[in-house]
Amino acid sequence: MLVLLAFIILFHITSAALLFIATIDNAWWVGEEFFADVWRVCLNATNCTEVNDTFEGYTTLQAVQATMILSTTLCCIAFLIFLFQLFRLKQGERFVLTSIIQLMSCLCVMIAASIYTDRREELHSQNQQFYPESSGGRYGYSFILAWVAFAFTFVSGMMYLILRKRK
Question: Transmembrane segments in this chain: where (predicted)?
């Protein structure tokens, strides 16, 4: 059981790290001449423009920002609750709250990545002054990490549900 708990703790910490990297790093959409995420767009790795209310579709990016921050926060809260429940609750009651919060984190990261997937082309076509026309671009590793974090938080949330009855 101790090995299982160590694996779950490591898995949860990995999920949180993936969420932090996906939220913070500037690589949701990348091209040869630019890097873009939900916070800023950088041309030639030097000329960075913060995404603000002058950016077309700013409310869409705000929704992605908010849900990614909420997902990361919920994942951290779930970990703290897991540690508290590990020592305080009796068998059968353990980890249900942790599982619910972790699955909410999973839902938030899925919503953020889905919104970005759906609205990315629209955002880039409306804001041509920020994106070079010559390079089409592709999804960056932060975007991919967001989807990997979705899978990790989902599996983690399900593991907590299964683990609740174990001794």
Answer: 63-83, 95-116, 139-163
